[in-house]
């Protein structure tokens, strides 16, 4: 079956087939990271729906909504190559009616870390994701670990609002030199890109340590060495479910997350670590 392009809600209803449906929400400018999500979706469902929607609600007034890359024709080719069944590409006016009043609040968790730098961002993300769930009615939805706080908040929303969708997290796809793929990478000049490499380098340096203070210090040292090419926004070591900083005695999974600007382009990256109770003292470092 050829790919169906649904440009509004009515098209989407017509495109609905029976069986299990998997949704991959995106903002387009698709790359290998998005493709990996589509493959996970394909393996999980009879019908794969990819939404391509640059959501105005999740951009702040001084952010890059108007200059966010839009490459719809190339995106369709990628979706076709990945065996996607339906691309949902609505207009903003179709998603947000002028009379609308009600939206999703991401709570306290939406105001920390990435949310502290981007007020209102996660409310905008959760509102559009819940609307996409209601419109597409998927059984499964796939999101990248690259946006770890977004993934954690979507899991929170699904639990808190009893949304009947299974959430699948997908590993981050990287360039051979470590740079996490992002639609915004196309804005990077050659020298910005050099600076941007410090993000993944810092995460690797942190991941080689065992104790929270040393993890943070090792990552911070790499970021410090990359100034002034890189303007660091935050470096945190947090609980993956709550995004609150972990204590020195914490054991269990943790996320080391970083945000920084290379030139005018804001980039985020993270890595998941497992901190174990047995560490401590110099002897545990080998
Ligand atoms: P975006 O189009 O940037 O909103 O991203 C759409 C989805 O792709 C989100 O679930 C992202 O977390 C995911 N994604 C973005 N970059 C990557 C990557 N490098 N590897 C895996 N997933 C990614």
Portion in strands? 15-25%
Unreliable residue stretches: none
Total domain units: 2
Architecture of the largest domain, CATH level 2?
3-Layer(aba) Sandwich
Strand order of the largest sheet: 1-4-3-2-5-6
Whole-Å distance between the termini? Answer: 55 Å
Order of helices and strands: EHEHEHEHHHEHEHHEEE
Helix content: 25-40%
CATH superfamily of the largest domain: HUPs
Radius of gyration from the alpha-carbon trace, in angstroms: 20 Å
Shape: globular
Class derived from helix and strand content? alpha/beta
Largest sheet: 6 strands, parallel
Q: Roughly what is the average pLDDT, rounded to an integer? A: 96
Q: CATH topology of the largest domain, which one? A: Rossmann fold
Per DSSP E runs of 2 or more residues, the count of β-strands stands at 9
DSSP summary: helix tally = 9
Task: Give the ligands present.
Answer: adenosine monophosphate
Brief summary:
The chain has 286 residues and is α/β, with parallel strands linked by helices.
Tell me what the structure shows.
The chain has 286 residues and is α/β, with parallel strands linked by helices. The protein has 2 domains: 167 residues, Rossmann fold, CATH 3.40.50.620; 93 residues, Pantoate-beta-alanine ligase, C-terminal domain (Pantoate--beta-alanine Ligase, Chain: A,domain 2, 2-Layer Sandwich). It has 9 helices and 9 strands. The strands form 2 sheets. Strands 1-4-3-2-5-6 form a 6-stranded parallel beta sheet, with helices on both faces. A 3-stranded antiparallel beta sheet has the order 7-8-9, covered by helices on one side. The longest helix is centred in the last third of the chain and has 18 residues. The radius of gyration is 20 Å and the shape is globular. The mean pLDDT is 96.
């Amino acid at each position: 079956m050829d790919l169906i392009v649904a440009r509004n809600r009515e098209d989407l209803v017509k495109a609905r087939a029976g069986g299990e449906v998997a949704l991959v929400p995106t903002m387009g400018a698709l790359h290998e990271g998005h493709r990996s999500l589509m493959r996970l979706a394909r393996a999980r469902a009879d019908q794969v729906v990819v939404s391509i929607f640059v959501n105005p609600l999740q951009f702040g007034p001084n952010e890059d909504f108007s200059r966010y890359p839009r490459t719809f024709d190339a995106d369709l080719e990628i979706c076709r190559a990945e065996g996607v069944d339906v691309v949902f590409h609505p207009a903003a006016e179709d998603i947000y009616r002028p009379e609308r009043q009600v939206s999703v609040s991401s709570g306290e968790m939406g105001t920390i870390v990435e949310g502290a730098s981007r007020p209102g961002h996660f409310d905008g993300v959760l509102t559009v994701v819940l609307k996409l769930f209601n419109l597409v009615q998927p059984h499964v939805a796939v999101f990248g670990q690259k946006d770890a706080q977004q993934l954690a908040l979507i899991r929170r929303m699904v639990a808190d609002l009893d949304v009947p969708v299974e959430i699948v997290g997908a590993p981050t796809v990287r360039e051979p030199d470590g740079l996490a793929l992002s639609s915004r990478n196309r804005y990077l000049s050659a020298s910005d890109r050099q600076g941007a490499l410090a993000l993944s380098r810092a995460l690797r340096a942190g991941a080689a340590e065992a104790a929270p203070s040393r993890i943070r210090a090792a990552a911070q040292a790499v970021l410090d060495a990359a100034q002034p090419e890189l303007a660091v926004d935050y470096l945190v070591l947090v609980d993956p479910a709550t995004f609150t900083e972990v204590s020195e005695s914490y054991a269990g999974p943790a996320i080391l997350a970083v945000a920084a600007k290379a030139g005018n382009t804001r980039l985020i990256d993270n890595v998941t670590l497992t901190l174990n109770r047995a560490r401590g003292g110099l002897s545990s470092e080998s």
